[in-house]
DNA sequence: CGGAATCCCATCCGATACTG
DNA sequence: CAGTATCGGATGGGATTCCG
């Protein structure tokens, strides 16, 4: 399956293109990462719980996004060796430091939803 | 060119999927919108100025993103009828209300860049 | 339960050329 | 200067199936 060729795609694309905002986006860019992180603000969650909280994303996408967040040190993944399997995701300290960003996004979204009757 | 068929793609996808964060992302989601908006926080900018401030994006993408932001009432576009042409982009009041989100993103990115020597 | 692998089509987006 | 038009390759991501 693996041709032993480390692909490593466009990761770290905008690590420091000069703009601090791009650095943030290199970590939490994408449509679902902020949503996943926001849900994790309230505490650790199992995989299926995250799926239920994010119905607009497929399980596949949630897996991929979580893997990237894990690789960036934003979330931790704990596997409990039991049957049936149980995996818990939680924010790391670094992930927790994103709280101000996530909360301001939630606040703005709440305001926006109120003035958008559509 | 136009078959008079309003396509209107996946816009308004996550207007109110229940999660306020998704509502915010439906407006400022995407890789370059936050960057463009952040630059506009400091005042109105001409098209080429935005291009210079966002070298990682092509002019084409900047145009498209600005058009979406304009349609969502986040930025305004002012054309000056002179030669050579001159177009200025600025935040609307609604766009300005995104400042807390943009600033917290900048703050986090700055911190992140400092502890990332790479 | 929590994934990984594969298929495969829709779209994104860069490059290029042209315009008022 | 500030775009638009078009093409074509790359990518994204949904659906499905299978596995420990």
UniProtKB/TrEMBL annotation, chains A, B:
PROSITE patterns reported in the protein's UniProt record: HTH_HXLR (PS51118)
Keywords: DNA-binding, Transcription, Transcription regulation
Pfam families tied to this protein: HxlR (PF01638)
Record has DNA-binding as a keyword: yes
Superkingdom field: Bacteria
Ranges for domain HTH hxlR-type: 19-117
Gene3D superfamilies: Winged helix-like DNA-binding domain superfamily/Winged helix DNA-binding domain (1.10.10.10)
Protein name according to UniProt: Helix-turn-helix domain-containing protein
């Amino acid at each position: 399956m693996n041709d032993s060729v480390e692909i490593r795609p466009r990761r770290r694309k905008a690590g420091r293109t000069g703009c601090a905002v791009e650095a943030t986006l290199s970590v939490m860019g994408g449509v679902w990462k902020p949503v996943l992180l926001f849900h994790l603000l309230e505490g650790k969650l199992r995989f299926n719980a995250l799926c239920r909280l994010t119905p607009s994303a497929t399980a596949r996408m949630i897996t991929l996004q979580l893997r990237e967040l894990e690789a960036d040190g934003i979330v931790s993944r704990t596997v409990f060796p039991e049957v049936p399997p149980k995996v818990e995701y939680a924010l790391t300290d670094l992930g927790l430091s994103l709280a101000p960003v996530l909360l301001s996004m939630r606040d703005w979204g709440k305001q926006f939803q109120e003035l958008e009757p559509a």
